[in-house]
Amino acid sequence: MTTLANLNHEILQCQNCELAKTRTKVVPGEGNENADIVFIGEAPGFNEDQQGSPFVGAAGKFPDELLESIHLDRTKVYICNIIKCRPPGNRDPLPQEIESCKRWLDHQLDIISPKVIVTLGRHSMARFFRGASIGKIHGTAQTINGRTYFAMYHPAAALHQQSLRKTIEADILKLPGIVQANEVKEDSTPTEPKPEQLSMF
Ligand code: URA
């Protein structure tokens, strides 16, 4: 299997969709190749597109504070996005952009093989919890085939709606327990996923 560095090098050359024409830099993702936790945001914004790193500048401040609140930092986790290039004007990613970027994210997850995936925002959530509503499932986790999926609001949502800040701060505090619960499950007999859970993918 290729290394994450090799894969990310390949992602940097990607020409699979129209965003290749408008991006400044590709933003594959950053962090620990052996991370137990992968955070998946939506798409690079202006600063990310300039720097080639996820959640930098103002967009990175709150996520960094959230990590600190559970005694983590970027060196211990992996942070990436559903799509690797900035949509012009920060518009929502188009379904075909998400689709053509899917294989990169899938390959990254194969290599990192995290215990827990944290989805940030509804686009990232929709990739793993199909048909779910963020208002209903934020702060909840589902384990399928040994991997736990934990849905959170996007940190930027707190900028638009102040009351969500407290919700996001409270949700992240559940994460250490969720990682621990996943480890306990790993030690016991694996349970078969229910058919309706599998159909969420
Ligand atoms: N928002 C995201 O979803 N990802 C980034 O990298 C920056 C802002």
Task: Quickly list its features.
about 200 residues; alpha/beta; Uracil-DNA Glycosylase, subunit E; 11 helices; globular
List the helices and strands and how they pair.
Blueprint: H1 4-12, H2 19-22, E1 30-31, E2 37-41, H3 46-51, H4 58-69, E3 78-81, H5 95-112, E4 116-120, H6 122-128, H7 134-137, E5 141-144, E6 147-152, H8 157-160, H9 162-172, H10 175-187, H11 195-198
Parallel strand pairs: 2-3, 2-4, 4-6
Antiparallel strand pairs: 1-3, 5-6
Helix pairs in contact: 1-5
Bound molecules: uracil.
Describe this structure in words.
The chain has 201 residues and is of the alpha/beta class. It has one domain (3-24, 34-186): Uracil-DNA Glycosylase, subunit E, CATH 3.40.470. The protein is built from eleven helices and six strands. It has helices at residues 4-12, 19-22, 46-51, 58-69, 95-112, 122-128, 134-137, 157-160, 162-172, 175-187, 195-198; strands at residues 30-31, 37-41, 78-81, 116-120, 141-144, 147-152. The chain has a six-stranded mixed sheet with strand order 1-3-2-4-6-5, with helices on both faces. Strand 5 and strand 6 (147-152) form a beta hairpin. The longest helix has 18 residues, at 95-112. The chain is globular, with a radius of gyration of 16 Å. The chain starts with a helix and ends with a helix. Mean pLDDT is 92; it is low at 189-201. Residues 41-45, 48, 54-55, 59, 81, 156 line the site of uracil.
